[in-house]
Write a structure and sequence with these properties.
Elements (H helix, E strand, L loop, with lengths): L11 E5 L20 E2 L2 E2 H11 L4 E6 L5 H5 L4 H10 L2 H12 L2 E6 L6 H6 L2 H4 L4 E4 L3 E3 L6 H11 L2 E7 L9 E7 L14 E12 L10 E9 L2 H8 L10 H10 L4 E6 L3 E3 L3 H14 L4 H15 L8
Parallel strand pairs: 1-4, 1-6, 4-5, 8-12
Antiparallel strand pairs: 2-3, 6-11, 7-13, 8-11, 9-10, 10-12
Helix pairs in contact: 3-4, 8-9, 10-11
Bound molecules: 1-O-phosphono-alpha-D-glucopyranose.
Length: 318
C-alpha cells in the first residue's frame, strides 16, 4: 500500500447506545442496558476501558431518551468524592474518580432508533475527516486478549474498513452480519501479531446482514467492533432500510465494498462477553466475578459448591 505511511491511526470511538433494549425488559424500562452492572462496573465502563486501553481518549456516545445516566457515570462527583476522602475510603475514591479519567466523553442524541447505520450517521460532524472506531454498547472483550489495537493498526495500513469476526455455529448466522472472505495479503504487523486471541486476517468479498444458515456465505460473524473511514457517512445516506426495516451499517459497508473500498477482518478467538441478552449477561457476570482477585476465590468456591451440591452437577475445568 504506497500511502500507508501517511495514514494515521484512528483516535476517536463512537458507541451507539440509544437502543430500547427490549430483551432486558422490564429491567431496562428506566435503566439503560449499558448501565447494568457486571460485578461492580456498568457494561459501558468495560467498553470505554477497552477503547482507552487501545489509546482512544475521545469517545462519542450516541444516546437516546432516558439514557443521560450513562453520561453521569463518566462525570466527576465532587460531593461523593469528598465524602469518601473524609472517610478515608481511598480505594472506592480511586474507583469513582477512575471513570472520569478514562476518556473525554461527548454525546449526541439519536431522536429515533432507526438502526445501527442511522445511529452511526450522527457521528459525522464529531469525527471530521479521520477514520474512527465503533464499539457496540453491549459487548466487550477480555483485557488480556485485546482486539482493538490490532484493528486500528490494520486500518492505518490498509485504509478502508476493518472488522472482527467470530466463528459462530451455523444456526446462529441469523443473529449477525456475515462475511464472505478470501485470504488477505495484509497479515498482522509485528507489534500486534501474536496477541492472544487473534486469528487470521481475511479480505472481505461480501457482507450480508442476518442471513439464515442456508443463505449465509460463511460462519464468520461480524462482532461489535469496527474501524470505519469517513466515506461511511455518505454510504449510509445512500442506502435504504434493510433487515428488520432498519438502516443497517452492514448495508452501507457492503455498498462501499462494491465500490472498491478495501474491507479486512481479523478472526477473534479470545473471550468476548455478550451482555446484550440475558444468558450472555449472566455468563459475563459469573466469568468476570471468578477472575476478580478480591471476590474470585470466595465466589468460585461458592459456585463449585452450588453446582456440585445444590444442582447435583459435576463441574468441569474447561
Ligand atoms: C449488530 C449488527 C450485526 C453485528 C452485531 C454484532 O446487530 O447489525 O451486523 O453482527 O451487531 O453484535 P444487533 O446485535 O444490533 O442486532
Amino acid at each position: 500500500m504506497p500511502d500507508s505511511q501517511a495514514r494515521s491511526r484512528a483516535v476517536r470511538a463512537v458507541i451507539p447506545a440509544a437502543g430500547l433494549a427490549t430483551r432486558f425488559l422490564p429491567a431496562t424500562k428506566a435503566v439503560p442496558k449499558e448501565l447494568l452492572p457486571v460485578v461492580d462496573r456498568p457494561v459501558l465502563q468495560y467498553i470505554v476501558e477497552e477503547a482507552a486501553a487501545a489509546g482512544i481518549s475521545d469517545v462519542l456516545l450516541i444516546t437516546g431518551r432516558g439514557k443521560t445516566g450513562m453520561v453521569d457515570h463518566f462525570d466527576r462527583q465532587p460531593y461523593l468524592e469528598s465524602r469518601l476522602e473524609a472517610k478515608g475510603d481511598l480505594e472506592r475514591l480511586a474507583a469513582v474518580k477512575h471513570t472520569s479519567e478514562l476518556a473525554e466523553i461527548y454525546t449526541c442524541r439519536q431522536g429515533e432508533p432507526l438502526g445501527l447505520g442511522h445511529a452511526i450517521s450522527y457521528a459525522e460532524s464529531h469525527v471530521g475527516q479521520e477514520p474512527f472506531a465503533v464499539l457496540l454498547g453491549d459487548e466487550f472483550v477480555d483485557t488480556d486478549e485485546p482486539l482493538l489495537p490490532a484493528m486500528l493498526e490494520l486500518q492505518a495500513r490498509t485504509g478502508g474498513i476493518v472488522l472482527a469476526f467470530l466463528e459462530v455455529d451455523w444456526a446462529e448466522t441469523s443473529r449477525y452480519g456475515i462475511a464472505s472472505v478470501e485470504k488477505a495479503e495484509a497479515p498482522l504487523a509485528a507489534g500486534v501479531a501474536g496477541t492472544a486471541g487473534l486469528g487470521d486476517v481475511f479480505r472481505v468479498t461480501g457482507l450480508v446482514e442476518k442471513p439464515p444458515a442456508e443463505k449465509a456465505p460463511s460462519n464468520l460473524a461480524v462482532v461489535g467492533r469496527y474501524v470505519l473511514p469517513t466515506e461511511i457517512f455518505d454510504a449510509i445516506r445512500r442506502i435504504k432500510p434493510g433487515a428488520g426495516d432498519e438502516i443497517q451499517l452492514t448495508d452501507a459497508m457492503a455498498l462501499l465494498l462494491a465500490e472498491g473500498v478495501p474491507v479486512h477482518g481479523i478472526v477473534y478467538r479470545g473471550m468476548r462477553y455478550d451482555t446484550g441478552q440475558p444468558l450472555g449477561y449472566l455468563q459475563a457476570v459469573v466469568q468476570l466475578a471468578t477472575k476478580r482477585p478480591d471476590l474470585g476465590p470466595a465466589f468460585t468456591d461458592w459456585l463449585i459448591n452450588y453446582v456440585t451440591n445444590d444442582l447435583g452437577g459435576t463441574p468441569t475445568t474447561d
